[in-house]
Structures are given as C-alpha cells and as structure tokens.
Design brief:
The chain is α/β, with parallel strands linked by helices. The chain is built from 12 helices and 13 strands. It has helices at residues 3-36, 66-74, 108-113, 128-136, 149-162, 166-187, 212-219, 237-243, 262-266, 275-278, 296-307, 309-337; strands at 40-45, 51-56, 61-63, 81-84, 98-99, 118-122, 141-144, 193-198, 200-201, 204-205, 222-224, 247-251, 282-285. It has a 5-stranded parallel beta sheet with strand order 5-4-3-6-7, sandwiched between helices. The longest helix is centred in the N-terminal third of the chain and has 34 residues, at 3-36.
Length: 373
C-alpha cells in the first residue's frame, strides 16, 4: 500500500472514531427526552373507593350518565366531551355529541374508538361490569356516588380538580350554596309540607331516605312521607292513604310511555283515596331533580315555589310596600323644600297578586324514572 493510501486510511479511521465518540454522549442525553414523552398519570381515589390512574392532562372525556354530562358543561369543559349517552339531553348542545349507546349497556367499541383519556361513570346508574370492561381495555374511569345535595356540590368540586380546573368547581359549588342559603332564609318560618314523590305510578314507587332526591325535598321545604331504607321502595296505595301527603310531587319525564292526564289519573283504581288527588294538590317540577348535578338547585326552587307560594309572595309584597314608602318620603321631602310646589297626590300601585296554588298540574303526570341520572 502506498504512503498516500495509508494516510487516507488513517484519516478515515480517525474521523469514524470521532463520530462515535460524539454520538455516545448525544445518545445518553437523549434518553431522558424519550422517557418524558411517556404518558403521565395521576393516582386518585374515586367516590366508590377505587384507586384510579388518570392520564394527565385529560383532553378527551366520555360521559356515561346525564348528570355527569351536565356537570361537565357546568364546569365549562364541554369542548373536552367527545361522547355521551343517548339520554344525555341537557343542555341541548349535549345532544350533538357522539352517542355511545345507553348508560346500562354502552358500546365499548364506540367508546374505544373515541380514544378517551377518561370515562365518567356514576355508581347509581352504571354497571360494575362496564367499569371492569373499560379496565380490560386500558381505559381509565372515574366514578361518582352522591347521596345528598351537599355530596353533589362536593362531587362537582372533586371532578373539577381531577380535570385540572379546581377554580371552576369552587365557583359552581359556591353558586349552589348561595342559592340554597337564600332559599332556606325564605322558607325558615314555614313548616315543611308532607309530600309523596312519585317515581312511578303503576306500581307506586317513591324514594328512600338515603337518596339525594329525598334530601332535595328537604331543601325545598318538604319531607317525604316514605321513610324507607331502600333507595326506590314500592309503596302501597293503602299505606300512602294512611299517611295522607299534602302534595304529590312528580318530575317531568321524557319517557316514551304516555303518562295519564289529570282526569284519568284521578280515576285510576285506588288513587282517589288520597286527599291530594281529590283536591288536585300536585307539584310537577323539572327532571333536573332526578339528576345529581348542579342544576338540581333549580328543581328545588321550582318545588319550593309550588308548595310554599306564600313564601315568595310575601317577599314581593314587602318589596312593593318598601318602594311605596320610599316614594312617599321622597315626595314629602320635595314638598318641604318648596312649599310653593303642590305635588300631585301619590297613587300607590294596585297590589294585586295572582299566583297559581301549589301543585298546579298542566297536561300530564309523568312517571319520572330514577335511571335518568
């Protein structure tokens, strides 16, 4: 080999060695960069006591309950909601989301195709089998389980926290607390009305003492005549007649089964033994009462206005009387300042108030079903 060839060979070997030495530290430095791209998880305990690993951040959500869909919207996270159930109908925009079937038997294939970071479920509605199936697919799920109105507020805050918007949860809960406190002040001097909440009428099914609906009734100035350990107890008409509720309470429903009208309801076998039926003392409120979500406060106030109309009329009268008094004082003050001015006589407004008695019943008695949750 010539001297020139040897020199060229040595240069090639040296260059190759230099490249290898330069690449070694580069690979060592790039290793951490690769690991940081791996999914980051947050370990949380859901409301059923399960330990759940939730990928961070949560960008894609599937909701398997109407109440959870409503809560996601209340928190302002609707853009992250990529799918929900066929029964998720509020707010109206929720109906535009991709549907994954029903709450009891959702399509796992459809859920997986949506590539959710998190699936939201609730113990009172969804099945444990669904949760296990999601686990087997490697899809994280978080379960809620509220039993009181206070639990609903706390649940909203917890959900906001795991979705990285804690301030939204605090705001939603504070707004609920403010509305409920104002309502309690209105109702403080009025005795609670005894009511029968009708979940279904044939057979008669009501709510037990440990349900969030029973708790919502208390906030509305009512108490259920049914004191059962079961969440959805069946009650005989004879027992209901023995207890004689002041009002029957129904939740509006989107049930496909046509509910009876007021007239036909009053003629159903056995129902006329209830004085509330004979006297048409009904209260029909929003189906929001069936859903453990922030909107339940609106349903609570609806019920309070129907069974305690005097609480709201009194407030209005007081305000009008105060306005009249202030107007008279103002006119009197003006007269004192200028005796030459003769003011026209004060004509107090006509204080005639018309309000529909509690229990107004429009067209139908829906059989609000608990599964709407």
């Amino acid at each position: 080999m010539s001297e020139l060839a040897c020199q060229l060979l040595r240069r090639v070997i040296c260059a190759a060695a230099a490249l290898l030495l330069a690449a070694a530290p580069s690979r060592a430095q790039s290793a951490p960069v690769f690991s940081s791209a791996s999914p980051v998880y947050r370990e949380v305990i859901d409301e059923t006591g399960r330990s759940v690993r939730i990928p961070q951040p949560v960008r894609r959500i599937v909701s398997l309950a109407p109440s959870l869909t409503e809560t996601v919207y209340a928190l302002g996270l609707q853009d992250r909601l990529v799918g929900d159930t066929e029964f998720c109908d509020y707010p109206p925009d929720a109906q535009k989301k991709i549907k994954v079937g029903g709450a009891i038997n959702p399509s796992l294939e459809q859920i997986a195709a949506l590539r959710p970071d998190l699936v939201l479920v609730t113990k009172g509605l969804n099945r444990l089998e669904t949760v296990h199936a999601l686990d087997n697919l490697g899809i994280s799920s978080y379960a809620t389980d509220p039993h009181t109105v206070t639990d609903i507020m706390a649940s909203s805050k917890k959900l906001a926290d795991i979705l990285s918007v804690p301030e939204a949860g605090v705001s939603v809960a504070a707004d609920m607390e403010h509305q409920l406190s104002a309502l309690q002040r209105r109702l403080a001097s009025f005795p609670a009305k005894r009511v029968l909440f009708v979940v279904w009428h044939q057979p008669l099914i009501s709510v037990g003492r440990h349900t969030f609906i029973a708790d919502a009734l208390r906030y509305a100035g009512a108490v259920s005549i049914v004191d059962a350990e079961q969440d959805w107890p069946q009650v005989s008409l004879e027992e209901a007649a023995r207890l004689q509720p002041d009002f029957l309470v129904f939740a509006a429903s989107h049930s496909e089964t046509a509910p009876p009208t007021v007239e036909t309801f009053a003629t159903l076998p056995g129902w006329r033994i209830l004085e509330a039926v004979s006297n048409r003392r009904y209260a029909v409120i929003s189906d929001a009462v069936n859903r453990p979500a922030p909107r339940i406060v609106a349903a609570i106030e609806e019920l309070a206005r129907q069974i305690h109309p005097e609480a709201f009329v009194e407030k209005r009268e007081n305000l009008d009387e105060k306005a009249i008094k202030e107007k008279v004082e103002k006119e009197k003050s003006g007269k004192d300042k200028n005796e030459k001015t003769t003011p026209s006589p004060v004509q107090p407004p006509h204080l005639a108030f018309s309000f529909r008695p509690g229990g107004r019943f429009d067209d139908a008695i829906p059989g609000g079903r608990a599964c709407a949750r």
